[in-house]
Amino acid sequence: MLLVDNRQNKIEVTNELEDLLEKIIDFTLKEEKVLIDYEISLIFTDNSEIRTINKEYRKIDKETDVLSFPMLEYPKNKVYKDVYQNFSFDDSYFDEGKLVMGDIAISLERAKAQCEEYGHSFFREVCYLSVHSILHLLGYDHMEEDEKIIMRDREEYILQEFNIAR
Question: Pfam families recorded for this chain (predicted)?
Answer without folding.
Answer: YbeY
